[in-house]
Every structure is written in C-alpha cells, then in structure tokens.
Amino acid sequence: xxxxxxxxxxxxxxxxxxxxxxxxxxxxxxxxxxxxxxxxxxxxxxxxxxxxxxxxxxxxxxxxxxxxxxxxxxxxxxxxxxxxxxxxxxxxxxxxxxxxxxxxxxxxxxxxxxxxxxxxxxxxxxxxxxxxxxxxxxxxxxxxxxxxxxxxxxxxxxxxxxxxxxxxxxxxxxxxxxxxxxxxxxxxxxxxxxxxxxxxxxxxxxxxxxxxxxxxxxxxxxxxxxxxxxxxxxxxxxxxxxxxxxxxxxxxxxxxxxxxxxxxxxxxxxxxxxxxxxxxxxxxxxxxxxxxxxxxxxxxxxxxxxxxxxxxxxxxxxxxxxxxxxxxxxxxxxxxxxxxxxxxxxxxxxxxxxxxxxxxxxxxxxxxxxxxxxxxxxxxxxxxxxxxxxxxxxxxxxxxxxxxxxxxxxxxxxxxxxxxxxxxxxxxxxxxxxxxxxxxxxxxxxxxxxxxxxxxxxxxxxxxxxxxxxxxxxxxxxxxxxxxxxxxxxxxxxxxxxxxxxxxxxxxxxxxxxxxxxxxxxxxxxxxxxxxxxxxxxxxxxxxxxxxxxxxxxxxxxxxxxxxxxxxxxxxxxxxxxxxxxxxxxxxxxxxxxxxxxxxxxxxxxxxxxxxxxxxxxxxxxxxxxxxxxxxxxxxxxxxxxxxxxxxxxxxxxxxxxxxxxxxxxx
Amino acid sequence: xxxxxxxxxxxxxxxxxxxxxxxxxxxxxxxxxxxxxxxxxxxxxxxxxxxxxxxxxxxxxxxxxxxxxxxxxxxxxxxxxxxxxxxxxxxxxxxxxxxxxxxxxxxxxxxxxxxxxxxxxxxxxxxxxxxxxxxxxxxxxxxxxxxxxxxxxxxxxxxxxxxxxxxxxxxxxxxxxxxxxxxxxxxxxxxxxxxxxxxxxxxxxxxxxxxxxxxxxxxxxxxxxxxxxxxxxxxxxxxxxxxxxxxxxxxxxxxxxxxxxxxxxxxxxxxxxxxxxxxxxxxxxxxxxxxxxxxxxxxxxxxxxxxxxxxxxxxxxxxxxxxxxxxxxxxxxxxxxxxxxxxxxxxxxxxxxxxxxxxxxxxxxxxxxxxxxxxxxxxxxxxxxxxxxxxxxxxxxxxxxxxxxxxxxxxxxxxxxxxxxxxxxxxxxxxxxxxxxxxxxxxxxxxxxxxxxxxxxxxxxxxxxxxxxxxxxxxxxxxxxxxxxxxxxxxxxxxxxxxxxxxxxxxxxxxxxxxxxxxxxxxxxxxxxxxxxxxxxxxxxxxxxxxxxxxxxxxxxxxxxxxxxxxxxxxxxxxxxxxxxxxxxxxxxxxxxxxxxxxxxxxxxxxxxxxxxxxxxxxxxxxxxxxxxxxxxx
Lengths: 667, 634
Description:
The complex is a heterodimer.
Chain A lengths: L6 E4 L16 H5 L11 E15 L3 E14 L9 E9 L2 E2 L1 E13 L2 E6 L5 E5 L4 E7 L8 E10 L8 E2 L6 E11 L2 E8 L7 E19 L3 E25 L17 E10 L5 E3 L4 H10 L4 H5 L2 H10 L6 H15 L1 E2 L11 H7 L1 E2 L1 H14 L4 E6 L17 E8 L2 E5 L19 E5 L5 E5 L6 E11 L5 E9 L1 H11 L4 H11 L4 E8 L8 E9 L4 E3 L2 E4 L21 E2 L4 E10 L5 E4 L4 E4 L5 E9 L3 E10 L3 E2 L4 H16 L2 E4 L1
Parallel strand pairs in A: 2-12, 18-19, 25-32
Antiparallel strand pairs in A: 1-14, 2-3, 3-10, 4-5, 4-9, 6-7, 6-10, 8-9, 11-16, 12-15, 13-16, 14-15, 16-17, 20-21, 20-23, 21-22, 23-24, 25-26, 26-28, 27-28, 29-30, 30-38, 31-37, 32-36, 33-38, 34-35, 35-36
Helix pairs in contact in A: 5-7
Chain B lengths: L5 H5 L10 H4 L7 H4 L4 E14 L2 E12 L11 E4 L3 E11 L5 E6 L4 E4 L5 E4 L2 E4 L9 E11 L5 E4 L7 E11 L6 E6 L6 E5 L2 E7 L17 E6 L1 E4 L2 E4 L3 H13 L7 H10 L6 H15 L1 E2 L1 E3 L10 H7 L1 E2 L1 H14 L5 E5 L19 E6 L7 E3 L12 H4 L3 E6 L2 E6 L9 E10 L5 E9 L2 H4 L9 H11 L6 E11 L4 E10 L4 E3 L2 E5 L20 E3 L3 E10 L4 E5 L4 E4 L3 E11 L2 E10 L2 E3 L4 H14 L3 E6 L2
Parallel strand pairs in B: 1-11, 7-19, 18-20, 26-33
Antiparallel strand pairs in B: 1-2, 2-9, 3-8, 4-5, 4-9, 6-8, 10-15, 11-14, 12-15, 13-14, 16-17, 21-22, 21-24, 22-23, 24-25, 26-27, 27-29, 28-29, 30-31, 31-39, 32-38, 33-37, 34-39, 35-36, 36-37
Helix pairs in contact in B: 6-8, 7-8
C-alpha cells in the first residue's frame, strides 16, 4: 500500500556498533582456529546485525528498509558455504524489492599482516529467478580456512506490510547478534516470539519530528484560485525494539523432527493496523478471529465458497432421491475426488477460481476443498472449511495469515464433525493426508466465527497381520500371511500399491523383505475405500532360524521382528512425531515339526508408556502341535514430548528384546 | 554438472513426412507390447536439423508422447533451454485425452520461464522454458512442437530413439540437412537387434522399440542402447570456430582456442610457486607441493557465462579470486605446474560413478568435467581432481576412475584410461577384539584400515563432528542394538592414502540368553546385509563396476562360566564373482579367533550369471549370521 499524504519523516537512529564497525577486524579473531563454545562449528557469526525501519520518500511513499551487516569466521573448508550469500528479492509486476550498497570483504592473516580482499562489482550476480523472484548472489574471493568474511547490503521494499521473520538461531553459532525494528506510530504490529531460546527486546518509545507539508486551495470570487503551501511540525511517536544476544548456540537437526523451524528462535512482526493522520484505522490482523475474518473476506475464499451455479445441475442429479446425509456425503466426496485432480499446489486461496477448476477438472487445494464444502452445503448439510497448516509450513503458534496454507472440509454428521480432503484419491472421511496432520485446524462457520478443531483421527489406524508358518529344513520357512489395514495405514498402502506396476510392486516387496519369494499374491478392496484393504500371499524365506546341536532356535515373529531401535541418540530436544495414532496386531501360528517338542518359550510380556501413550503386549502359548503368538503394539498418540524421550527409547529397547527372544525346540 | 547442459545447445527438430498424426494422439489403440514396462510411450519423435552455415543451425522438433501413469510425466520433457546462442523461434504444446480429443493448447508465452541455475552453480546465463501441466487422467498424450536456432554447431544431438528405462518408442525419425557442404561424421552404436532403418547417410528412422526395465548391476544405458552420434567437422562454439575430424585435431583446437590463452600468471605468483618448490628436483614431489598449494588456496564455485561454459577462467583470475569451476581450477593447477616446469595436461571426462567413456574413436564435444593428468616416465599417469580440498594427491576415487578420457596436449588430443582401483587395492582390513559378558553384552575394540575405493567411502567421515560420527556408526551397525560409542578416533593418512578408524563401543543384550544357553553371532561389525534384487526374468547383462576385499581378524573373549556347546563349520565359497572364507579357531578355554575374508571382483558377465551372483551374496549374508551356542558350566 502506498501513502499518498505528503509529509516528510525525519528519522534519526544510530546503530550501536562501536566495536563492530565494518572492517574493524582484530588479529585475535583471525588467529582463532575453532569456536571455544562449540569446537565442532565449521563457522561462526562473529557479528550479525539487522536493522529494519521505515523511510519516507516523496515519490514512492513509505518504503521498508532492511540493512544487513554480517561478519563470519570460517574455521574449516566445510564452512566455505557461508561465504556465498544468496538474496531472493520478491516482485509483483513492476513493483520490486531492490538491493543496493553491497559491500563485501575477505580478511586473512598473511604472516603478521591482515590482508583484505574486496568483492568486485563483477562478482555480484543478478538473476531473474522466476516471475516472482529476482536473485542476487555473491561469493567472497580468496577464501581460506580461518578467513573472516564480512558483508553488508541494503534492501528497500515497497511491500511495507511484510516484515521478514527475524531469526535468532542458525545452523552455526552466533557470538553477537543485534537486531532492531523501528516503526512510526502509523504502523502497528503484533509481535510473535517462538523457539526454545527465549528472547526479549529492549523497547524504547520516543518522539520524532515530522515536517508536514500542507497544501490548501482557496477560491475567491470567480475563478480566482490559488494554492498555498505551508510547513508545520508534527510530533509523532516511534517505537523501537532492540534485540541484543550473545553466544547463541547452533540449531542442530535431529532425526524424526517434523519441521526444524518450529523450534528456531525467531520474532515475527505482523502488521495489525495502520492509522495515518486524517484517515481511519485500517485493521489487518490481531487475533485469530481477525485472521479468519481477513481470510474469509478475501475474494479468493469466501466469495468462491458462495458460488454454486457452476455445479448445481450436476449435484442435483447426483443426489436425486437421496435423503440419508451419510450417503449424500459419500456421493459428493467421491464425485469431487474423481472429477478433480489436485495440481500439486498448497493454498488457502483459490488461484484460477472454483468455476474454472470445475471445468478443467484440475485445481489447487483451496479450489477443490472449497468446492466440496459448497456442494455439501448445497445438498443441505452443515459443512464448513477448515484452515490447516501443513507440516512443512510449521505450527501456527500466533495469529498470522501465513500461519495457514491449506484447507480441508468439515461436515457435521450426527453432530460430530467429519473431516474430508478431496485432493487425495485415497483419503477417507476423517483420514486426512499425513502432511495435513499438523497441530490443530481452525473451522470457519457461515457467520465468520471460528474455532479450533482436532485433525487427528480418534480411532487408531490398524494393521492386523495373521501368519501361519511351517519350519522347513536348515532354517528355511514357508507359510501364508494375511494383512488387513485401516485408516492411515490403509491410505498409505493404497498410495504405494494402486499406482504401481503390479509386477514391479511384487519384486520390490520381495526385495524389501530381503529376497523373500512370494506367490499367490492377492489384494482386496484396494479401490473400495469403504472397506479395509486386505493383502494375502504365500511366502518362503531362507535363514529364518538356527539349527544347532539338534535344537531349533527361533524368534517367533521371524522377518516381522522389529530389529532396530529407531531411537539411537542419547538425548533429544524436540518431540517425536509418529504421524498418527496406530495399532499393530500380529497373530502367528507356528507348526512344530514332526519329532520336535518345545524346550523353552519366552515369557509373556506387557509394557506400558506413561499417560496411556502406548502399550505392548506379547502373549505366547503352545500345544504339542503348534505355538501361538499374539502381539499387540499400540501408539495412542501421534506426538510424544521430548521429556519422555528416555522412557520411549527404553520402551522400544524392551519391546525389541521381547520380540527377539528365542523359542527353543528340541528333538 | 560442470559443463553447461549439453542439451541446451543441441535441441533440434522437424516436420513429419507420411505419419498419421491422428493415431498418435489416441492412447487407447496402443500396441500392448509398447506398454509393457513402460511409463510413457514416445509415439513420435521427429527431429530435423538444418546446418545452414558453420554458425547457424535450425532445429525443428515434433514430439508426441503418451503418458501411461504418474511416473511417465517426467518423460514428456516439456522444457527447453535457451541462452545467448540458442533462441526459441516457436514453441507450443497440445494435450489430448485418451480418445485423441484435443483438450488444451499451451502457447509459448504460457510456458514458465526461469533461470536454469541449479543448486551447485553460483551463476549461469542459461534459461529454461518449461510446461507446467497437471494431468486429469491417464493415459493422456502431449504433442510438443518447437523450433530453435543456434549459432553454436559444436553439439549435434545424437539419434537415440530409446530415451531411457521404462519408456518405449513407437516412431522416431532423425534427419540432418547440411546444404552448406559441411562434412558431418557419425558413429553408429548398438544398432543390431532393433527396428532401425537408415533412410540416407544422415537420415534414420526407428519403429516399435520396447521399453527396458531398470535392473541393478547392469551396464550403463548408453553402452547398450541404440544410438547414432553425429559431429560436424567444421563447427562453431559460442562464436569460436573450429575444424576438427580426429581427436588429434580436436585436441589441438581445444588447446589453442580454449586453453592456451588462459595461461597468464603474474610474475609474482610464478615466483611464489618457484620458491615453494625450490628444494625439490623430482617433478612428482614438485607437483605434490603445487597440488597442496591449490587445495589450500582455492575452492569450487561454478560460474558459467557464454564461452565460459567451455573455456576455463584465466589462471590469473582464479589466482585473484581463490575460486573457480573444474575448468578454471584444473587450468590454474596446470599453469602453476608449468611455472615450475612440470608437464601436465587438461583432460576431459564424464564424471560420476558409472564410468562412462569418452568415445575413443569419435571426435566430438563430449564429457562434463575436467581433471588434470601428469605423465610420468614409467607411464603410470598421475590424475588430479582439482576441485577438491580434501582428496590426497593422485587420488580420484569413483568420480573419474577407470574410464577413457580426452587428454588435451599442445600436440593434440589423446584418449587415455584413468586409474583403475583393483580388488586387492580397495581393501578394508579390520583387527579387533570382542568381549562377551555373562549378561550377553558385548564390548568391541577395532582398528579398521581402508585403502583404494574403500578409502573413498571413508574419508568424508573426517568432516563429521562427534555427534554425527556417533550417529554414523550406530546406523552403520544398525544390526547391533543399544550401541554406546566409547571411542571414535580417525586418522587420515594422505601420504599413503589410508584411512584408519579406531573404534570402541559396547552394547547390551548382544548375545541371546535362552535358559542355560547363550547364542552369539560371531560377526558383530562387518556383516554383509546386502542381497542384490531378485528379478523373475533378468534381461540385462551383469556388470560389476569395482572390486573390493574385506579381511577381518577378530579375537573373541567368551563369558566366564560358559563352555562351548556347538561350534560352527568353517566355510569357503569360491565363485567367478569373488570369494568368501570364514573360520573359527579356539585359542584357549575362553578365547576364539574368528577370521573372515570377502572379496568381489569387477567384470562383465552374462545375464544368466546374475542368479549365481545373487546367490553368492545371499550365502555370504547367511554365513555372516553364523552363531555359536554356549552352555553354562555346572
């Protein structure tokens, strides 16, 4: 947005950078061979400064200015990547972000002397990346291990509502970080802070002086018009937030983390309203209700949701004579799934619009699921869109419009919400694609009011495996196996099975099971989503038990045994995400070969995680002819907090030990 | 990777003669033989290249592809590179449904236009136009029509009617028109056994080529698929013209027009390196010092602009900036060596572990990477990878080993083979000790020494921090649970090119305790867990690119209070693919000595040998799980 009012802002600010002036590199810094706080660090930000503020310009109105100054010590050649800087500049038509004042220097120690090499103009590369982004890239010359690189630049942006997140933690440590954000009273922001490392700003309120240029016209008599200019001083309030951090540790990735950005320390300034002199307040966002309102009122959301004409004829025909609401839902859901193909784009807003999507049979997430919602409403059901943040988008901790990037549909059935996502052919009622299972959704009702809604299924996804095993010679086994899957487990199965070439699928499966040989392979209900998917086959596999001294040693789950503990690290900072609640049940029957008897059986086992998070039961019994094993492993919740990490690791260890325990048969 | 994309400069096309287009848009009538193993079917790929002059080439393409499933979408190849030399004159795409009805038409301006810079490149002036299309149903058919002009004629795309795995070809035609009397040379490869027809010297057609399924341990696709390579004997590259019909002439041209001028070191730099090697007389010792100097001073950064996609940065520029791409860094190293009177030659290669050869008998622009070769008196050429700060002198690893490359000398180009790492040279030798305690836990202490290609698999460990290293070993020995790492000492001996790992760890519940008995898997730290994939009908020959040899000598201390109930049988397996040998010997009441040798040889074998090869790996996996049983003393 552009401010047309004519006035001049005199901004005054100073960066407290006495010890960090550009080029003031010390010999000690250059001599340092590793970061004493983190000896493994390949590089360290010695100084990281960002200054973001508003500047008034007669021609362009307000501009958002961001000045960056960074000084990085590079310890080893693995850290060389930090000497290459990539800056993406957003653009929309001819409105563009611009970069200026690039200055970059490499410092190295040559004997006793500090050698500094400047980046030349022709070392800065500008590329038109796509319709929406330009890119500026440079890499520092003459780099060696132990070098220090330092650069600064200035970005001026006409997109004055969008303040890039201030990030306080990176993959390498930071020795000193200074960040500053200054806004005049005309722009009001909400501050959202996140991350494990808490930061709090030093806030200053002060006054600045605006030289105000007044323009007035006066008319006297007939056609005698004159324009008068006059200056007046107006005091305005300014707000300044300063962050000053020292020795920020590196943010390190751990396995099984959904999205590392959920844990990075950062501050986001979200514009909540603007109030310019002589004009009314323009609200942006402040609360979740405001966010929802903004999204709902967007022409690419609410208006699209209210369009019905394009499908009326088809839907009327589809549900003709059907009165059962559950049947209506099924018909409409399946209709949208088969008619529309998802084009791969996540969005809470439509792009080409629902009408075009319906006609072309292709659409983004918003088009497909808003259309689904509209059709359900048209059929007389209580359906509403639900805003979701996908896993890659992170957890929307604070009310921001960017917090959501996806839509699903909630429809009421017997006063219970049923969640639907028609972008995935194998999604089922209340079984959303895994990427959408993230935190909570926000349902928007017809009156624009919103509420949080649980996205995870209340029922566990089940995998039920029944296996009958015969022990053959020399450790080989053969038998039959039947697997039944429901919920997410069924969805995942169908996603990999249905589109595949069947012969390849079988070969891949054999190879995944370490060269097992499979015959009589059969899958049922792969396309009938209303029933559990069922797979059965005969198998034979070598080397599945030990024959020692006329005794047979076997782990009764054979190739289904969990062999590896997924949790190997000694400690963990972030929660563990299992994706969705699930239960796995194994019923195994082993025929005892002629002439053998049971020498010993493992003991029954029962394990429980605290807070009813999960349980493991292992039941074993035998007759002279056979051994029966029933194993039940349940995870009742998708996400386990890191405080339970040790417990969880121990639980898996005990579970694996139980599964690996041996039955001994003797002659 | 380090040359600009060759297709960029070489995309071409033309009109169809007597082909019925209507049928090509209909997917329902497809011959089932063409659908077998195929994700997409090339209904027609019609290419016509007109070389109007040494520096003017027109390419006209009509390409019709029926996509059978999701995996087939990538075969549409609906993208075109362009830059200062390649201009796109026309471009359109038409989409048809399974019944052959046109459902969408996409004009040139609706193609997305992006920079073709990939992740590894700082800057390139190459751009890309690509089509973004979401199929509504499968199968569907896309027709692409385009025409480009290029001022470069150095690359003539080959006639390669089979485009890769899982794609079949119904019709493919290819024609070069050369009204300017420029001589076009060609080389036919693997044409036997395919429905191919030579319609003229520079005019080929192919019909009904069935899709090939990808199989593990098979030869490189370009080494068995049909192709005809073409090259103009007079050509132009980004404004530089050349005449060359043999590797000798080609090499001369490259040397004189692309490389020679890039030698421009300052007198100061020449002095610096002369001083650096002042003490050395042996050229190899000099070269070692220079290589180290380059490794300390430079790093790999790729910048590709205009002729710079083919010609190295000047040595003085690399000297100033401290970075360059493979061409720049290789040329810089060569220049420094020349300054101290060591002969070295710029060498063009296809990089990557698949060992693709430069065609030894067909001179044309080939390769995607550059290395340096230093001739020696005993004819053991030394090869240098100049883009790495880590590799030891003379070590090229699997990135450029054992393949034909073009060595560019002032006297012309020569084809030479790079170093091959032999089975015995690529060794991993482990000396270790395990102690098993009464509760079944194990503590292990090992010294692992790796050379050759096995060094290549290990040296990167040096760059890991302690946490990453611990994670690496826990994953590496994933068949041992509850590992507690105690020591991970690494030594990278770059002089002898040996990597040594000293590792100590302990793990609880390693052995299985059943009543009075204990079962112990003897091999705790070097089990083969790999079994090559099973194929119901193996179609492609077996190719093993590299051999290796593992030797393990482990002393095992048994827990107190137990005696051996059952030992295992020593085992030796000899095959044409390699050997496996394990033995167990009781040293004293509580100590066993476990010895294991496992080697795989490189080589080419028939497809019928694949089953035996797979069985060998399976047997090894089985015996690596051999257990002994202990029983409590009463």
